[in-house]
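Quick illustration, no need to memorize.
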Amino acid sequence: MKQNKVYEIRLKIFLLRDIPVIKIMGEEAEFIDSALAKDSKWLEYHEKNCLKNYCMGGLYPIEKDGVYKKEEIYTITIRTVDVELAKYFSKELRNHYTESIKGLTLENRILPKKFIGEIYTLTPVIIKTDKGYWRDQISINEFERLLVENLIKKYNQYTGEKIDEDFQLYTGLTFMNRKPVKVEYKGIHLLGDKVNLKISDDVRAQELAYVLLGTGIGTMNARGYGYCNYRWL
């Protein structure tokens, strides 16, 4: 198996206007998209219909009243398994700006490889079906199958390998939301879920779980969904 690395960028940003929490991921995505558009190579990458190999979390600290404040400083954490993309982000995101967000300073690190006990999503997981939100259309077993297939597809595409899929990624999956989590994307509302995965001790499971931290889980990771945190054993 390829020895992957997950690159993490913690970017401090300054808000140029108030942003309600339901719109924040869209504003973050626009900020990053517009940075990619400054270079022809990365613009082509952005516009290509392919897995993006990066993900991002929401703003920190969290605003309890649901509105991120104009003229306040927050942190966005961005992760990727693509070293060239990490370098580009590190160069371009500081001092980049949109009408809503201005980049300030950033810190880089490589996530250490340790034994992962569990992974849990900080932003909702989006699993698409032909007819919308999955709970109305498919079983939990089918949801889990789509979740694992998506991760293996990301891993195979990035590494150029085709791993043996006969292994157990996790020993337990828990939904952390009692009702679907509503998110906004391009003016429409989508429904997602927050999940916790107890990662198995299988070598392949541990490797894929590590990669997952850099790619996100489920779909629309470059829009800010399926961003994960972790607990080591």
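The helical segments are 21-36, 40-47, 83-92, 140-159, 203-215.
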